[in-house]
Amino acid sequence: MTSRPTTEIPRGDIARNCYDEDGKALISHTYILSVALGLIPNAAINNKFGKNSDIDIGSVPEDIWSGGGLYNFLSAPTTLFIASENTNDNALGSGARVLNLQLLDENYTTQSVNVTMNGQSSVTVSGGTYLRCNRMSIILAGSGEENAGEIDLGYGANSSGSLANRVGMIEAGINQTLQTFYTVPVGKTACVLGWGGSLNLAAGATNRDCQLSLRVRPFGETFQVKRWTSIVSDGQNPFDDGFNVALKITAKTDVVMRAESVSDDDTNISGNYDLLITDI
Prior knowledge:
Elements: E1 6-8, E2 17-19, E3 25-27, H1 29-36, E4 43-55, E5 62-63, E6 81-84, E7 96-105, E8 110-116, E9 123-124, E10 130-141, E11 151-159, E12 162-170, E13 182-183, E14 188-200, E15 208-217, E16 224-233, E17 239-249, E18 254-262, E19 267-279
Antiparallel strand pairs: 1-2, 2-3, 4-19, 5-18, 6-9, 6-11, 7-8, 7-10, 11-12, 13-18, 14-17, 14-19, 15-16, 15-18
């Protein structure tokens, strides 16, 4: 009878070494590294990371992303727009000039779309309508080498570059999204290899704690807790938890890290997780 593989995971490293009972490597560090280097066809590594820098006792639960609050996943394909709160983020400006968006269309197929900024004015994201944004990053900037203002992806009314319904955002000077939500594209399967995070103390604070979860929503279902942890921090206690058995998630599944409770107002939490993504 074939034994169930076990997993040894070096903490703080993306290396994952899976062995059978005879010590034979089933998935080695070399395989994961080869995937990361693009040497393995139809496979990729994706590190998701984000932060929420202002979580209050009365506002939880909140998802871990720059926009704060619970993230609003789109329920229908939507025409999206890009705008910045700073006029220097434009095609010839000193700030962000061109963004790349990793989107999922109405069929959950990945679409890579470039958008040229036009300051505080809304720019339509070309190519049709979209259901998800898995990442945004600035690929071309002016002399400032970074986005001068907060950049919103969304729809609805535009107030000086801030969109009424935000789907994604890039904080000023960051050059890419900080968001722990992700949706598996159609035709793909993902495995969560591990997760981590930290609770960052505000100036003058000596100790804080929070409850943090990793939630997964299979297509057509509801969000389910797959991992839960408590962080008690004096500012020096990040956690990095490799999974003994990788968490498999199927196509069209949503994933997010969520702050379930905090001990103090103005709590700042960072989170991350590693994905191995393969073709079905």
